[in-house]
Write a structure and sequence with these properties.
Helix content: 55-70%
Distance between the termini: 40 Å
CATH topology of one domain: Substrate Binding Domain Of Dnak, Chain:A, Domain 2
Mean pLDDT: 81
Number of helices: 4
Largest sheet: none
Low-confidence stretches: 1-20
Structural class: mainly alpha
Shape: globular
CATH class of one domain: Mainly Alpha
Order of helices and strands: HHHH
């Protein structure tokens, strides 16, 4: 394997969500359907997590100092850009399984960010349900 290929492989592996994050939790309730059914089910779970993410973001923003609010906004925008770019990697894969991989990437990353924002505003109690 050429030496210039190794950094590229390492970059791709770093960008991938950990195996323990994808295809667990909410995904398991979707796995019994066809490819189309799975992607629709996972997309609905993603919409639910995205709504919760938006609530957690707004709540955290209201609880932070003005200087932190700008930093939070910048971080959230960059996170969205990263999530979308990372999940395009999965959507670009071969075959119809790539639709499931891409949809699950969006769901798992959105869930993870939601849990992070909830934990940031509730240090004593940690994140909410589904964030174990």
């Amino acid at each position: 394997m050429p030496s210039r290929t190794l950094p590229l492989i390492a970059l791709v592996l770093i960008a991938m969500p950990a195996a323990g994050e994808m295809f667990e939790g909410d995904y398991r309730g979707c796995s019994e359907f066809s490819t189309l059914g799975i992607t629709e089910c996972v997309a609905e779970k993603t919409r639910q997590w995205d709504a919760r993410l938006n609530r957690a973001y707004q709540s955290l923003r209201q609880r932070t100092e003005p200087g932190q609010q700008q930093a939070l906004l910048a971080a959230q925008r960059l996170w969205i850009e990263y999530r979308d770019a990372n999940c395009r990697f999965y959507f670009a894969g071969p075959g119809t399984i790539s639709r499931i991989d891409g949809a699950e990437c969006l769901r798992s990353m959105t869930q993870e960010r939601t849990c992070e924002l909830e934990a940031a505003q509730n240090r004593e109690g940690g994140p909410g349900p589904g964030c174990e």
